Amino acid sequence: MNSDIYPQIKQAFRHLNPQEVRELAERPVTIGLIASGNAGFVQMEDVLIPRGVTRARRAELESLVHRVGAPGAPETFDIILCEDELLCPPGAFCFHASDFRRTAREILAARPDLELPLARNFEPFRQPAIARIVRGIALENAAFALVTAFPGMLSGAVRFPFSVKDFASEAAFMTVNQVRMAFLIAAASDEDVGYYEQRVQIAAIVGGALGWRAAARALEARIPYGGGVIPKALVAWAGTWTVGVGLERFYRIGAGLTRAERREIFARAMARGREIVAGLVELWNSGSQRNAEAALAI
């Protein structure tokens, strides 16, 4: 019975294209700065281009960041940051000097198409971008489990990265989507992306497929459906979240999670997942597709 997962996963890998992820991450991105004076410009530049980077890296980043209106600056930019003491022009984003993560989250929410190139090039965008990636894919996997439990319940409210009908099981979808997450997190971390380049991480994800399915079945046996909690969806959320946290750790410091850390993170994700999955089921049962889609928004 268990051996049927791996042929399904192998077949499902045809949906992945790491080259597309690389191309998205390598897209050129330019940032324009608006400030009232030199001190404001320097403050923004120091956040975007940390002083500790190498000379070559600094030159690369300085080619992407420009003071608006300065000699040699482009006429248009992908993103414009405005000093928080000024009235931002239309389309510009306020540079929150005391909380740049807030600025990053606002930009990524408005421009998800720039998520990978911003994270790859500018480290202050990296953690917020990876958090969005992990949460988004965990939600997709949880939602897929709900689709298989109640076929047709979403009625188009959820946008999956792949066609649902192309997957023979939740395990195949969840595993391939986690590998996709590995590609995205590597790209956002300015690391190599690909099957060969990430073979160790991919092998761990594929090897964990049986474990997640066993966890879902054990939970389903102990907790029958009730209170809006779907065991498969709950494990899909928590398992994917745990994998994502481990990948972020690996690309940030070069070491993964210990077994004890995985158990702790999985337990916390399960606790959070009960609320998320129950909320999604309640929304869908009420027929509020707009609210369901909002619940899945990043």
**Can you tell me the overall shape?**
elongated
| Strand order across the largest sheet | 2-1-3-4
* Helix-residue proportion: 55-70%
Main beta-sheet annotation:
4 strands, parallel
Oligomer: single chain
Structure described in brief:
The chain folds into two domains: 2-24 and 126-295, no CATH class; 29-124.
Task: Give an overview of the whole structure.
The longest helix is centred in the C-terminal third of the chain and has 27 residues, at 259-285. The chain is elongated. It has a four-stranded parallel sheet with strand order 2-1-3-4, with helices on one face. By secondary structure, it is mainly α. The protein folds into two domains: 2-24 and 126-295, no CATH class; 29-124. The chain has helices at residues 5-12, 18-25, 38-48, 55-62, 100-110, 115-121, 126-149, 170-188, 199-207, 209-222, 231-253, 259-285, 289-295, and strands at residues 31-34, 65-67, 79-83, 93-95. Residues 225-229 and 288-294 have low confidence and may be disordered.
Task: Show the helix and strand layout.
Layout: H1 5-12, H2 18-25, E1 31-34, H3 38-48, H4 55-62, E2 65-67, E3 79-83, E4 93-95, H5 100-110, H6 115-121, H7 126-149, H8 170-188, H9 199-207, H10 209-222, H11 231-253, H12 259-285, H13 289-295
Parallel strand pairs: 1-2, 1-3, 3-4
Helix pairs in contact: 1-8, 2-8, 6-7, 7-8, 7-11, 8-9, 8-10, 8-11, 10-11, 11-12, 12-13
Features:
single chain; 298 residues; mainly alpha; 2 domains; four-stranded parallel beta sheet; 13 helices; elongated
